[in-house]
């Protein structure tokens, strides 16, 4: 076994798979003045300082992720939020550029907040000019005029217009980075980008949760155009290594109201009636109907009001996720009664409010889907989940918002407040959606028991 490990290590180095070493042909090494013939002398440079205790081990997953991608050339790094996906991607880009494997790169993401965050990191980490194609930035043509030695940072939606205009020869020396890659599987992008991504010589997907539940077409598109998952480093791994903080899980129980039960019975009855008539809609439609009833139940409000009276601290440095702005109004009444400085952060709200929250000027944000992905605010301590999908993708993204290590709070331990429906209906639910709360509860319980090793 030891001989086999050493052989695999040698092959990794020889094939330039280790980011800490680079292998040159002898003539090329001489030409680059990398070899100097000399007598045996003392080390001509000081030995590198030792890593802080545990530091190298804590972040070794990034090195392993880079090595996995350099070997595969195309695929997805499934890494938990806060474990350095962006840093790993930029290390890959730098290494490929240094090796002469790429001359240009395209980074695609969704949402102005996340794209702005990417721009900040690109400008800080690379000397290549960065052109932007999202929101008010219209610099795609400048990139297309001369893509060599440049990076394009673009929204996912703009790729269908931009990529056909990129000269064919550029793809052979190009890297594509798709952040939150699960979003690339949406029906509109599948239709507009089929065959547009594979020409990139290197294709890198990043996501904490790359699989789209209940969406076979989207998953197939992502694997065909970008690649399979080639590396995994999950939330439990990150908590155990001390990269993410641990958290306490608070379960607030509720039961459906009579109105909720009536709406549920109607949705199921309609589905079965259509099925008997030979006109059954896709089962996903019933998933969505039942999930919406669960997410919008107002029976969650009383237990939350009682909980924050006893634990008002949970509202500080918190993100509260609701399904709709109308539901958010019910929550806002509780926040005002607790005298919390808060603001909403929905689709039409001023983005400056996110900055105010990041700076500590607001204690709480009430939001829907807008802040679920990619935003890095280390001081977020708590999340409240009034609305949670059965698919784990969004829940994982939201959990990642509060588990980042905060250098200003070294003893940080997060809190997750969740709502669990405890009654069991005898209704004929073919989706299993009614058990979604219990499934999520079991997952959270297991994860919250994780401790740094």
Describe it for me?
By secondary structure, this protein is of the alpha/beta class. The chain has 3 domains: 1-39, no CATH class; 59-233, P-loop containing nucleotide triphosphate hydrolases (Rossmann fold, 3-Layer(aba) Sandwich); 247-448, Rossmann fold (3-Layer(aba) Sandwich), CATH 3.40.50.300. It has helices at 2-14, 26-31, 55-58, 60-72, 85-98, 112-125, 140-145, 159-162, 187-193, 216-225, 235-240, 258-276, 283-295, 301-310, 325-337, 352-358, 392-400, 436-448, and strands at 74-79, 104-109, 130-134, 137-138, 150-155, 174-178, 202-207, 229-233, 247-254, 318-321, 342-345, 364-367, 382-385, 414-421. It has an 8-stranded mixed sheet with strand order 4-3-5-2-6-7-1-8. A 6-stranded parallel sheet has the order 9-14-13-10-12-11, with helices on both faces. A hairpin with a 2-residue loop joins strand 3 (130-134) and strand 4. The model has no long low-confidence stretch (mean pLDDT 87).
